[in-house]
């Protein structure tokens, strides 16, 4: 198990629930825009928000934002150690640096001393696009081994400064390389690991790539916090991050909705029914953890619908509704979702 660190009030590692992060993409000097976007991210379940700090004014803005939100904030710093120190002094809950581009051991030491004084962790983040020259030469280019070596070297540099409050990330846009590099690092460190596929792309391709890359690591027990990186609204990153955790069985969705893929036997508008059920269940006042099955026909439908807490099996322009394994009603197609919601509300009220 990894060690545990804290980013603000959020625990990372050491068996804590895996957190979902994102990064603001509004102007880091615009306090109002930052607060608005942090609010949007919080509304969809984001646990931790990272903000790019490109200059001193951004570090001061971070300080003002820090005082107006509960969200744990990570300052993302490149190249200039003075920005890292300023971000720490302005209240960052964690900083992300790549020691390889901070300039010198002495500059890294100054950042570490500031983090120590303010008792905040440092995420060491290495990226396939910025590996050290000697590592690139030794491995003949960017490799998983090189990426892992760079991350472990950066961790060792800071550990030698008597600082242990660390997390690590190593990111490549190559899913296989990313996975292999994480395996190497996970076997050699107990620092919490921030996982993700960097520059995964636009929503469509990026979410698949992230699901495969992040999902593969999660299935191996690697990863304490994650970010899905998409060329899109950061809100989408959080939504997909949560969905990946749910699909991996690491978070319980409010409703586990099962629906069949439809086939030539389907005689109801199953896509419409499933989408309506998903929409209405998301807003319904019901307890978490229910399984609801929306099935197209009488072949697999009744079995799945009976196994679920609640379910529908479609027929010819009509369908049957199951609750807790019992067939309750046969209703016309257009009334199926209304009746399902009614049945669920009544049953769940009784259970409560
Ligand atoms: Fe086809 Fe019925 Fe299976 Fe749905 S449940 S895919 S309609 S056989």
Keywords:
352 residues; alpha/beta; TIM Barrel; Sulfite Reductase Hemoprotein, domain 1; 2 domains; eight-stranded parallel sheet; five-stranded mixed sheet; 20% strand; binds iron/sulfur cluster
What is the CATH architecture annotation of the largest domain? Alpha-Beta Barrel
Number of strands: 15
Summarize model confidence as the mean pLDDT: 93
Any idea how many domains? 2
From the N-terminal CA to the C-terminal CA, the straight-line distance is: 37 Å
Largest sheet: 8 strands, parallel
CATH class type of the largest domain: Alpha Beta
What is the element string, with H for helices and E for strands? Answer: EEEHEHEHEHEHHEHEHEHEHEHEEEH
Question: What fraction, in percent, of the residue positions are helical?
Answer: 40-55%
Outline, from the CA principal axes?
Answer: elongated
Number of helices: 12
Bound molecules: iron/sulfur cluster
């Amino acid at each position: 198990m990894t060690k545990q660190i804290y980013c603000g009030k959020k625990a990372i590692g050491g068996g804590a629930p895996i957190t979902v992060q994102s990064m603001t993409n509004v102007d880091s000097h615009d306090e109002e825009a930052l607060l608005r976007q942090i609010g949007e991210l919080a509304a969809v379940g984001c646990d931790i928000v990272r903000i790019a700090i490109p200059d001193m004014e951004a570090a001061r803005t971070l300080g003002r934002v820090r005082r107006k939100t509960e969200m744990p904030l990570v300052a993302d710093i490149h190249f200039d150690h003075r920005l890292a120190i300023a971000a720490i002094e302005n209240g960052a809950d964690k900083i992300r640096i790549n020691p390889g581009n901070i300039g010198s051991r002495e500059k890294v030491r100054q950042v570490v001393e500031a983090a120590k004084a303010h008792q905040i962790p440092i995420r060491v983040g290495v990226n396939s696009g910025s590996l050290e020259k000697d590592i690139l030469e030794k491995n003949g280019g960017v490799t998983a081994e090189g990426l892992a070596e760079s991350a472990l070297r950066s961790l060792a540099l800071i550990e030698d400064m008597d600082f242990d409050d660390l997390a690590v990330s190593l990111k490549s846009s190559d899913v296989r390389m990313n996975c292999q590099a994480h395996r190497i690092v996970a076997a050699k460190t107990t620092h919490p690991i921030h996982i993700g596929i960097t520059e995964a792309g636009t929503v469509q391709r990026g979410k698949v790539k992230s699901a495969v890359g992040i999902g593969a690591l999660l299935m191996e027990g690697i990863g304490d916090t994650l970010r899905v990186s998409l060329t899109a609204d950061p809100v989408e990153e959080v939504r997909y991050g949560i969905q990946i955790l749910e699909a991996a069985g690491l978070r319980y969705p409010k409703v586990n909705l099962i629906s069949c893929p439809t086939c030539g036997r389907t005689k109801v508008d199953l896509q419409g029914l499933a989408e309506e059920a998903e929409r209405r269940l998301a807003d319904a006042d019901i307890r978490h953890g229910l399984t609801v099955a929306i099935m197209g026909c009488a072949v697999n439908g009744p079995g799945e619908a009976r196994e679920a807490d609640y379910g529908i099996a479609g027929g010819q322009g009509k369908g049957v509704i199951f609750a807790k394994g019992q067939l309750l009603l046969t209703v016309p197609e257009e009334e199926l979702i209304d009746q399902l919601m009614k049945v669920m509300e009544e049953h769940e009220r009784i259970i409560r």
